[in-house]
Recover the amino acids of this structure.
């Protein structure tokens, strides 16, 4: 059965993604990454802290040496959280929104990934230390699909990424939006989530985790994969930005601001530069 994350929990965060990760925990949308607006991580769950554990993370020059695992018993489920240096200890009772600690920039992240809280749910009989074994997740928010024609202007940059101004959020702060599945005039096919196509799979949100229907996935007018239910198998796609190949597109749902994010070591655009993205 799918565990549903309530709307009030989702609205504590600026962004979320079920599929924008290469790790097995996210397979079939069984984990969610929640992006807070600052360094303090508000709890997405209520319950009793069972354990906080320091774990070694893959060494990266931009990341901390260690990450942290937090286990919180919600009564019905065991919540498994990562990427937060805990200010709570075993035995503490926490409520939704209570501070758990500060986010950690972990070596599990690609260099273009912002700090976030990773959340999974497991039944009490499942080993909480294994990388897999969690329940499918759903979110109790309607994500508005934003059509996109593949063009935009760079409004923000980092060493390995650039964010475009398109598609623009129509009402920042009011609701969650995401990239529409389809061409520039088609927003009816769900919202595309995940790393296109640098991760093995992506997501097509707006459909039930138990839905087995196959659907074509189209980004900027080009076919990029096939969704079975809400999990997308990407085609052998190359993403081009102004004619040059890049690692891919990092896609997510956001309520603060929006715009397609271009990622990879070769992403070297300046603010104000116009970009055309193609998927071939």
């Amino acid at each position: 059965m799918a565990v549903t994350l309530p709307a009030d929990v989702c609205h504590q965060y600026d962004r979320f993604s079920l599929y924008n990760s290469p790790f097995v925990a996210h397979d079939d949308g069984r984990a969610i990454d929640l992006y807070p607006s600052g360094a303090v991580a508000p709890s997405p769950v209520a319950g009793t802290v069972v354990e906080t554990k320091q774990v070694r993370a893959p060494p990266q020059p931009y990341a901390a040496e260690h990450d942290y695992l937090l286990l919180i018993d919600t009564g019905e489920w065991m919540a498994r959280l990562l990427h937060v240096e805990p200010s709570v200890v075993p035995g503490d009772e926490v409520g939704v929104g209570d501070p758990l600690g500060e986010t950690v920039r972990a070596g599990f992240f690609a260099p273009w990934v912002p700090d976030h809280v990773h959340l999974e749910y497991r039944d009490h009989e499942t080993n909480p230390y294994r990388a897999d074994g969690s329940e499918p997740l759903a979110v109790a928010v309607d994500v508005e699909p934003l059509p996109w024609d593949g063009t935009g202007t760079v409004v923000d940059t980092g060493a390995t990424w650039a964010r475009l101004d398109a598609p623009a959020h129509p009402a920042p702060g009011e609701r969650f939006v995401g990239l529409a599945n389809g061409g520039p005039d088609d927003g009816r096919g769900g919202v595309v989530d995940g790393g296109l196509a640098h991760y093995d799979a992506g997501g097509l949100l707006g459909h039930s985790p138990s839905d087995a229907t196959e659907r074509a996935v189209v980004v900027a007018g080009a076919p990029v994969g096939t969704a079975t239910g809400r999990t997308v198998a990407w085609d052998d796609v190359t993403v081009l930005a102004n004619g040059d190949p890049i690692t891919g597109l990092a896609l997510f749902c956001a309520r603060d601001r929006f715009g397609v994010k271009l990622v990879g070591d070769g992403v070297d655009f300046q603010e104000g530069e116009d970009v055309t993205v193609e998927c071939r």
